[in-house]
Write a structure and sequence with these properties.
Blueprint: H1 3-19, H2 23-38, H3 41-44, E1 48-50, H4 62-70, E2 74-81, E3 84-90, E4 96-98, E5 104-106, E6 111-112, E7 118-122, E8 125-127, E9 132-133, H5 139-144, E10 150-154, E11 160-161, E12 175-177, E13 182-184
Parallel strand pairs: 1-2, 1-7, 7-10, 8-11, 10-12
Antiparallel strand pairs: 2-3, 3-6, 4-5, 8-9, 12-13
């Protein structure tokens, strides 16, 4: 079986599992993940924090985004531009509009980010060795291969699996934050 077929099967299994989790439990888990993130020195020492706008059953980042803004730090959110992901500084959540894949993204008036201290990455599945399974479009891997920053996966504990099939272009995560723990990938 090819790696892409293995990934597709694992992606479907993990998405079904995540989608089956009640909204209430996802809300509680997201709040615990946010607390664990705030306790991470990487996050607390960062000034330019790239996040993502949550969709579906992803870890909810609304409180994280509001916390970044409240602390006077730069909140950076992704936008798809010419089939690449780029990050822009937003001063408040009203600076967003529906973009690619119906995901909220920065309006054209937002300034492109020049520095990223850490990046919070949406994750469908991950191994403790830092191999991440995303949605399969490759936007994050392509972007992460061109930048040197701390890569943080926000994920529910039940999305951690023994191994993820990988390809040469897949980028490893540095830090995994769940509702139960912070895992530093060596």
């Amino acid at each position: 079986m090819s790696v892409s077929i293995e990934k597709a099967a694992l992606r479907k299994y993990l998405l079904d599992k995540r989608d089956a989790t009640s909204a209430e439990l996802r809300y509680i888990s997201s709040a615990k993940i946010h607390e664990n993130l705030k306790n991470s020195s990487v996050y607390s020492n960062s000034h330019n924090i790239a996040s993502y706008f949550p969709v579906g059953s992803e870890v909810d980042t609304h409180d994280i985004m509001l916390n970044v803004l409240k602390q006077g730090k730069n909140l950076l959110l992704p936008k798809i531009v010419n089939d690449n992901i780029e990050f822009y500084i937003i001063s408040n959540l009203e600076k967003l509009e529906k973009g690619a894949f119906d995901i909220m993204e920065p309006k054209d008036s937002c300034k492109k980010a020049e520095n990223i201290d850490c990046i919070l990455i949406p994750t469908i599945g991950i191994s403790k060795s830092g191999d991440r399974l995303g949605y399969g479009k490759g936007y994050y891997d392509k972007f992460l291969s061109s930048i040197d920053t701390v890569k943080i996966s926000l994920t529910y504990t039940k999305q951690i699996v023994k191994s993820i099939p990988t390809e040469s272009h897949d980028i490893k995560i540095d830090l995994i934050i769940t509702e139960d723990e912070i895992i530093k990938v060596s």
